[in-house]
Design a protein that fits this description.
Blueprint (H helix, E strand, L loop, with lengths): L13 E6 L3 E2 L5 E2 L4 E8 L4 E3 L5 E3 L3 E4 L8 E4 L7 H5 L7 E3 L2 E6 L6 E6 L1
Antiparallel strand pairs: 1-4, 1-8, 2-3, 4-7, 5-6, 7-11, 8-9, 10-11
Length: 120
């Protein structure tokens, strides 16, 4: 089991584009790290969760992911080749890119494998 990082790694058979580390650009916008592809299991379903403000809200999608993520980062179900170069640099210009509203990381009983889940 050593070396495995996600319990669902065999089930993460979809590709999403991930924009990490939003930073205020000083002009009312945000800049992000370069977009990267990540393995996911994307489910378009509503689920009630608690957001970073402590409010119960309803998701538009629940996504199981292969890496740690944070609220305010963005995901798009698709590949980098689906996007223009301008869209790759700005998730806010991508019509189906959604902000991560909550992140959860739960270990297995041994504590060496994790299930990571985000709500959009």
């Amino acid at each position: 089991m050593a070396g495995r990082t996600t319990f669902l790694s065999g089930q993460l058979n979809q590709t999403a584009v991930f924009w990490a580390n939003p930073v205020n650009d000083g002009y009312g916008g945000r800049s992000f790290d370069d977009a990267v592809e990540v393995s996911v299991r994307w489910e378009d379903r509503q689920e009630i969760f608690v957001d970073v403000s402590g409010r119960e809200v309803r998701s538009r999608s629940v996504v199981y992911v292969s890496t740690d993520m944070s609220s305010g980062e963005y995901l798009y179900l698709g590949t980098l080749t689906d996007l223009s170069s301008a869209e790759e640099g700005d998730p806010l210009s991508v019509s189906n890119a959604y902000a991560i509203r909550a992140f959860q990381k739960v270990p297995n009983l041994a504590g060496d494998v994790f299930v990571r889940k985000v709500w959009l």
